[in-house]
Amino acid sequence: MAIPALPEQTRVPPYPGRLAGFNAASADEAHEALLTCLNSPRWAQRVAAHRPYPDLDALLAAADEAAYDLTPADLAQALAAETPQPLPEGTYSAAHTALSAAHAAYEARFGHVFLIHLGGIPPDEALDRTLEGIRSRLANDPDEERVITAEHLRRLARQRLVERLRSGGNRSTPGAPPR
Asked: Tell me, what's the pLDDT at 15?
């Protein structure tokens, strides 16, 4: 079965000064910064090793390529470090119960946390989209779900890289990612 493509993020603005700082960081600093975007040492090493990047698009392309090459063991390691995305402020208690039950069912079936990239989704729709995603993906077989989860993880890593560059952090590495 073909996996439908997720909509691409809107083009992100360049962060030349912050990208230059990332390019100039030591290998260890760059590696540690990248691990906060995707907890895969292999992915972080590959992305850090190809510095310097001329622009953000090149960095994101390298991050994508490295994410596509994750082995099942790399993916399992990255997923083990993930946590469920927090609910929006003001979510009612019944929604917490429903989401907790859905997360538990997903983790029991697939052995890892449910991930969904909600880039561009308004915050007031996040809960419904998350519940819809969990419920629909519970019907997947494990191999199909691994492919879908890897795609969402790749998109989350891209988003975290952009957020690190947007937030600044110190001059040698991008800022802290959203979690």
From this structure: 63
Other CB atoms within a 10 A radius of the CB of residue 150 amount to: 20
Alpha helix segments (H runs only) across the chain? 16-24, 27-35, 41-49, 56-68, 72-80, 93-110, 123-137, 142-167
Number of domains in the chain: 2
Residues 101 and 59 in one domain: no
- What length is written for the chain? 179
**Single pTM value for the model:** 0.81
Q: Which of 154, 153, 148 is nearest to 134 (CA)?
A: 148
Please answer whether residues 37 and 157 qualify as being in contact, where contact means their C-beta atoms are separated by less than 8 angstroms: yes
- Do 69 and 93 lie in one domain? The reply is no
- Read off the amino acid at residue 129: R
Q: Scan for tokens 């891209």, then name that residue.
A: 158
Single out the residue of 179, 110, 100 nearest to residue 148, CA to CA: 110
Residue-wise pLDDT for 97-155, tens only, equals 888 899 999 999 999 999 999 988 888 888 889 999 999 999 999 999 999 999 999 99
Residue-range definition of the domain harbouring residue 103: 84-152
Most distant pair of Cα atoms in the chain: their distance: 49
* Spatial separation of the C-alpha atoms in residues 25 and 53, rounded to whole Å: 12
